[in-house]
Structures are given as structure tokens and as C-alpha cells.
Amino acid sequence: MFKSRKWNLILITPGLAGLIIFWIIPLIAQVYYSFTAYFDHKFTGLDNMVQLFRNKIFLMSMKNTLFLTIILVVVTIILSFILAYWIWTSKLSKQLISFIVVPIIIPTTVVSFTWELIFGNSTGINSLINGLGFNSVNFQSNALVVVQVTFLYMWKYIGLGTIILISSFETTQRELSEVYYLDSKKVLGRIRHVIIPQIIPKIVFLLYILFMFSFNISQDITTLWGSYPPNNLYTLQNFINNNFMKLNYEMTSSAANIIVVFACLVIFVLSGIERRYQYD
């Protein structure tokens, strides 16, 4: 028994040390700096947070982050559900399922280079438009850049969502689903009343994943448009990175705390939904 505990402790020590060094200590330091003046080491209370919420750029970045998170997650999970249901009911080849998950492993630099070729001013879609005798479309306008980012996120993660949902469909009672469909002949009713109630915990799990991945979209935005992207795409991560480069650690830490609180609230809500339907 003692040897077992000793070996368990030895095995978890590297992971635990990494967690403490790279996560817990920086998190504590982040909270500390958000309540102090970094260079003077003076306690400032909520002054940093007050200044943060008076910053118009921060408010814009927070609004953009909320908007993009909702749009990216909702659009991706809806389309993943439609694609998963189609593959599940049509019994398509598993090779197709393997193919649609490939985009998630493609490096960001490759994706950004491909995106520039597709949406460039004189390449891709615009080269076809010019060939037909029409003027080029400005894909860098505020409205179209949001569409580009949504499509990029959807393209990268719709395969992952589809695979998770297909595996969820396989756990449902197919006989009950088929009987309902034979009686009513309503596909939407079959999905709403039979399939979805059985897979809500899996849908919540997928929401967890898509929500966390939605924060990674800032990497693609920075790669495509630099540290100062169009206003519609300026997220909290861009605000944090730019303030960090300016050595404005108070604003950086305070904004990071907002992200932590936001993420905790979302996880708390999703956990409540998951627990409710697990026990129903």
C-alpha cells in the first residue's frame, strides 16, 4: 500500500509541478498585479478595474469577444449537428468522417496563407470576379471579416463537432427513433423529441470544447491581420497582448481576470445543465 502511494506520488509530481509553475503561480501573480501598481508595488484596490471599464478599446474588445464567441459556437454546433445527422442516417463511409476532421490539425500559418490566397485583392475569388468583368470585392470590410472568421472557425472545428455528435447518436435508442419517425413522418419531431433529449450531456460537452477553442481564433486573427485587426475583430486577447507589449501589466492582468471570470461563469452554467440532464 505504501509503495503504491509512493509510486503514485512520483508519477504525478511532474504534472503537478508543471500545473503549479505554469498555471497556479501565474494566476496568483495575475490577480496580485490587477490590484496593484506594477512598478510602484502599491495596492490600488479596484482602481485598475475602474480604469479598465473606462477604456473604450477594452469595451469594444469585450463586446467583440462576446459576439464572436456566441456566433462561432452557435453556428458551428448547428452545422455540426446537421452534418452529423446526415452522415448517421445515410451511413456514409467512415473515410469521409476521417477527412472532415483534418482541418483541425493544419498549422495556423498554412491556414492564413491559404486564406490570403482565397480572399486577396487580386487572387482567389477576386481573380474570378475580375475575370468576369466585375470590380473586386473588399473582403476586408468590417462586415465581411466577421463572415471570414466565422467560416474559418467553422471549417476548422466542424469535423470535431460532427464526430462527437455521431458518437452520441450511436448511443441513442435507434428503435425508439425509428418508431417515432414511422408514426409521424416528421424528421424535426424525431430530432427534437427523441434524439436531442438523449444526447444533451454530449451536446454540453461539445459546447465546452467549442467555447474553449473560440478563444484560439485570436491566433488566426493576429496571423491574418496583425496585432491591430479590423475593429470588429479586435478581441480581449488582442487587447491583452498589446497592453503586455506596452508593459501595461495592470491592464493586462485586469483584462485577463475578466476572461477567467467569464470562462468560469460559462463553465458553471454548462455544468448545471449537464448535471440536470444526467440525472433526469
Number of helices: 12
Radius of gyration: 23 Å
The topology string of helices and strands comes to HEEHHHHHHHHHHH
Number of DSSP strand runs:
2
Strand order, main sheet: write it out. 1-2
Distance between the termini: 39 Å
Residue windows where pLDDT falls under 50 for at least 5 positions: none
Q: Taking all residues together, what is the mean pLDDT?
A: 81
Query: What structural class is derived from the secondary structure elements?
Result: mainly alpha
* Shape descriptor: globular
Beta-strand residue fraction: under 5%
Major sheet attributes: 2 strands, antiparallel
Report on the structure:
78% of the residues lie in helices and 1% in strands. By secondary structure, it is mainly α. Strands 1-2 form a two-stranded antiparallel sheet. A hairpin with a 4-residue loop joins strand 1 and strand 2 (42-43). Helix 2 packs across helix 12 (249-279), helix 3 packs across helix 7 and helix 4 (94-100) runs antiparallel to helix 7 (142-169). The longest helix has 35 residues, at 56-90. It is globular.
Question: What are the key terms here?
Answer:
single chain; 280 residues; mainly alpha; two-stranded antiparallel sheet; 1% strand; globular
In short:
This protein is mainly alpha-helical. The chain contains twelve helices and two strands. It has a two-stranded antiparallel ribbon.
Write the layout of secondary structure elements.
Layout lengths: L1 H33 L1 E2 L4 E2 L3 H7 L2 H35 L3 H7 L7 H12 L5 H7 L10 H28 L4 H11 L2 H28 L2 H9 L10 H10 L3 H31 L1
Antiparallel strand pairs: 1-2
Helix pairs in contact: 1-12, 2-12, 3-7, 3-9, 3-11, 4-7, 5-10, 7-9, 8-9, 9-12, 11-12
